[in-house]
Design brief:
Blueprint (H helix, E strand, L loop, with lengths): L2 H17 L4 H7 L5 E5 L6 H17 L3 E5 L6 H9 L5 E5 L1 H9 L11 E12 L1 E5 L7 H10 L5 E4 L5 H13 L4 E4 L3 H9 L5 E4 L1 H9 L3 E6 L27 E9 L4 H15 L2 H8 L11 H22 L9
Parallel strand pairs: 1-2, 1-3, 6-7, 6-8
Antiparallel strand pairs: 3-10, 4-10, 5-8, 5-9
Length: about 325
């Protein structure tokens, strides 16, 4: 990180700290003093956007101030993250996923520090499993069969992802590393074309959400071999085993989740209030139904500190995979 960039980060922290340097009693009485914004690193219209907007509406009512969702898609979440890291108004939040835990290790030069420049606020969607899908025509009936095939044909069994460095890619790297096999990564420009080629038999396997693959499972074009949570999810078929149940893959876990971060200097009193309201809102039946769209069966109950510990564990998990794979990417332009 260059000196100019470091000075910029320090200046932002100083500005935000100065802006927030009020007695806690003053913060309790006056915050929020303007509309809050939740910066979303995805395009508008997806399921995470839907949940974010429902949360924003109810959070605005609870806080007595509007909460707006602002989509800043692009650059694997870096554009949105930089926007919040640079904010000095005390009223900006960042919607994050596993990409935030991945980026700090994947990109050696980010315009922010993924840990020091942010404070954990709340887990919004509890970790939900992905699934491993294969073409219906592939002659394997279990994950053990698939790994045996990979051992017989090193480097020939292929897996699709939505691009280099995303969670679908790293899930495949994690599987290959733990199973001791060589898999061929085939990155696509998005999950949809990857899934189409999977169904056509152009690639051999893919990690994805159960929701995304459901139509092709239903019409018999692809088949599920395993789910990636720590235990079997009640939202998935009861006879679908976890990856960790496969011999040699104990402890394997890759999940999808969403959370909220704030700039690091936001006072703990504001963070505690945001966390309490998020936990309360997300326990409501309407919100739980929407969270199910993201594969999250349980309402999140973590404190801000607990979410921070979870985020650190996720960051460390992906960092090990990235180091072992020797992955490094140039920071994409905004």
């Amino acid at each position: 990180m260059g000196v100019e960039t470091m000075h910029g980060i320090l200046n932002r922290r100083t500005l935000l700290a100065s802006a927030l340097a009020l007695p806690m009693s003053t913060w309790a009485a006056t915050w929020p003093s303007r509309p809050l914004r939740i910066v979303l690193p995805f395009a508008a219209g997806g399921s995470s956007d839907l949940v974010a907007r429902l949360l924003a509406d109810k959070l605005g009512l609870a806080l007595g101030s509007p909460v707006v969702v602002e989509s800043r898609a692009g650059a694997n979440g870096i554009i949105a993250s930089e926007s919040v890291a640079r904010s000095t108004d005390g009223h900006s939040l960042l919607w994050v996923s596993a990409a935030h835990a991945i980026n700090g290790s994947l990109y050696p030069r980010l315009p922010y520090d993924t840990q020091r420049d942010f404070a954990p606020v709340a887990l919004v969607a509890s970790p939900g499993p992905m699934v491993i899908a294969v073409p219906a025509a592939l002659p394997v009936r279990s994950l053990s069969d698939l790994m045996d095939l990979a051992r017989r044909k090193p480097g020939q069994v292929s897996y699709a992802s939505a691009g280099v460095g995303n969670v679908l890619h790293l899930a495949g790297e994690m599987l290959a590393q733990q199973a001791g096999v060589q898999l061929l990564h085939v990155p696509y420009k998005g999950a949809a074309p990857a899934l189409n080629d999977l169904a056509a038999g152009q690639v051999n396997l893919m990690f994805n959400s159960a929701l995304a693959v459901a139509p092709m499972v239903k019409d018999g074009r692809i088949r599920l071999l395993a789910q990636t949570g720590a235990q079997r999810s009640p939202a998935l078929p009861s006879d679908l085993p976890t990856v960790a149940e496969t011999p040699g893959l104990a402890g394997f876990q890759v999940t999808g989740w969403f959370g909220l971060l704030a700039p690091a200097a936001l006072p703990t009193e504001a963070i505690a209030r945001l966390n309490a309201e998020c936990v309360r809102i997300l326990a409501q039946p309407e919100q739980r139904e929407k969270l199910a769209l993201l594969g999250s069966a349980d309402a999140p109950t973590q404190s801000a500190r607990e979410f921070g510990a979870f985020l650190t564990a996720e960051t460390d998990r992906y960092a090990r995979v990235i180091r072992a794979a020797g992955l490094r990417l140039e920071t994409p332009s905004s």
